[in-house]
Specification:
Structural class: mainly alpha
Number of strands: 0
Radius of gyration: 20 Å
Length: 262
């Protein structure tokens, strides 16, 4: 809960204070940095645990949280947020928790994100069932590609636009899912991991940036929240649905079916 609220708040801050011409790069960098630091902190935490004991690894984590709280308190936002969306002739429809203009991008995002979630949720089970020994490597490569693609795709989106970048990302997700469903070849699975990471990291940044740019400055927070809410509810529905498909048709066929979503 704390991570979810904190990450959402930081996303809103970055989106609300960034130049609209660099929105993808700003959000992409924010998403990429946690992956970079996580790769180092995992090792550091393990070393602290080995040298000083398990309790000190938790104390170190609590200290990091305290530092983040202090830094957040010291943040100052004196600049007026830029107006993202062009003036609209009609009043935008909105509810208390959703911005309607963010719903199309949210729908695209969840359609592409679902296959990446199911790769994360069920791939270990599928790997054991099919006797595939390299599903752990798949997940490692996927996580690296996911983190790096956030920054790269965000930059490309700013330079070439949403339409040029979104279609390759969507195709990457569909192709990656089909590879899992149709083959157990190691080389192709590693390729699938890269493509799946690009799809998951890239679509999140593209859709989030476009949702913010489609909204007015006063609705930036609601636009980001709309994307998050739709993704969460989509995951709640699709995770058990994918599990049911796997029970009925098998894991390989389940991946073939959900490849149609992107």
């Amino acid at each position: 809960f704390g991570f979810g609220v904190g990450y959402l708040a930081m996303t809103i801050i970055v989106a609300g204070t960034s130049d609209k011409k660099a929105m993808g790069s700003a959000l992409g960098l924010m998403s990429m940095l946690p992956f970079i630091f996580a790769s180092a902190t995992n090792y550091i935490t393990l070393q602290i645990r080995t040298l000083f004991g398990e309790e000190y690894s938790f104390i170190g984590g609590a200290a990091c949280i305290a530092v983040c709280i202090v830094l957040s308190w010291l943040l100052r936002f004196d600049t007026k947020p830029a107006e993202f969306a062009e003036p609209v002739k009609t009043k935008e429809k909105r509810s208390k928790i959703l911005v309607v203009s963010a719903l199309p991008t949210a729908a695209i995002m969840i359609a592409v994100i679902i296959p990446t979630l199911e790769a994360d949720n069920y791939l270990a089970i599928y790997g054991e069932e099919a006797g595939i020994p390299y599903y752990a490597e798949y997940l490692s490569i996927y996580m690296v590609a996911n983190g790096l693609s956030s920054g790269v795709v965000g930059y490309l989106r700013d330079r070439f636009g949403t339409k040029v970048t979104v279609y390759p990302v969507i195709l990457s997700g569909a192709l990656a899912t089909l590879i899992i469903g149709f083959t157990t070849n190691q080389a192709l699975w590693m390729l699938s991991a890269v493509l799946m990471g690009v799809a998951g990291g890239g679509i999140l940044i593209i859709c989030r940036a476009q949702a913010v740019l489609n909204s007015s400055a006063k609705d930036v927070g609601l636009a980001v929240a709309t994307n998050a809410i739709v993704m969460d509810f989509g995951s709640i529905i699709m995770n058990p649905a994918s599990g049911a498909l796997a029970d009925i048709f098998g894991y390989a066929n389940m991946y073939k079916i959900i490849a149609a979503l992107p």
